[in-house]
Amino acid sequence: MLSRKYYEFVDRKGVYTRKRGLDLETNKQLLLKHIRDNRDNGSRLNDLRQVLPALSRRQVQALLAALKKQNKIRMVGKTSAAKWYPCDENTDCIK
């Protein structure tokens, strides 16, 4: 990818931002919002990958691991049947 300065020089700053993508925190917040919006039924990994289609499976899993470490979400189940749920005042997510 070309540098930000190049895109500024050719007056295409928006193209740089689009190609660069969203930052880490924004991606985590998008995942967290989706998980909270689907708190009743849970969110499978495939659903969460649709939220951030530009990211690989491993990248989405890394974001989920970071949110879990921050005690914001919890996983119920294993393998592809696992679902993610938000942690709140009614749920003990602290180990």
What structural keywords apply?
95 residues; Arc Repressor Mutant, subunit A; two-stranded antiparallel ribbon; 5 helices
Please give the structural blueprint.
Layout: H1 4-9, H2 13-20, H3 24-37, H4 45-51, H5 57-69, E1 73-76, E2 83-86
Antiparallel strand pairs: 1-2
Account of the 3D structure:
51% of the residues lie in helices and 8% in strands. With 95 residues, it is mostly helical. It has a single domain (23-95), classed as Arc Repressor Mutant, subunit A (Orthogonal Bundle). A two-stranded antiparallel ribbon has the order 1-2. The mean pLDDT is 88.
State the strand order across the main sheet. 1-2
- In terms of DSSP E residues, the strand content is 5-15%
Using the alpha-carbon principal axes, give the shape.
elongated
Stretches where pLDDT is under 50 for at least 5 consecutive residues are: none
The biggest sheet amounts to:
2 strands, antiparallel
Question: What is the CATH architecture annotation?
Answer: Orthogonal Bundle
Q: How far is the N terminus from the C terminus?
A: 41 Å
Number of strands: 2
Series of secondary-structure elements, N-terminal to C-terminal: HHHHHEE
User: Please, what is the average pLDDT?
Assistant: 88
Query: What is the percent of helical residues?
Result: 40-55%
CATH superfamily: Winged helix-like DNA-binding domain superfamily/Winged helix DNA-binding domain
Count of DSSP-assigned helices: 5
Radius of gyration based on Cα positions: 16 Å
Q: Please identify the top-level CATH class.
A: Mainly Alpha
Whole-number tally of structural domains: 1
SS-derived structural category:
mainly alpha
Q: Write the CATH fold name.
A: Arc Repressor Mutant, subunit A
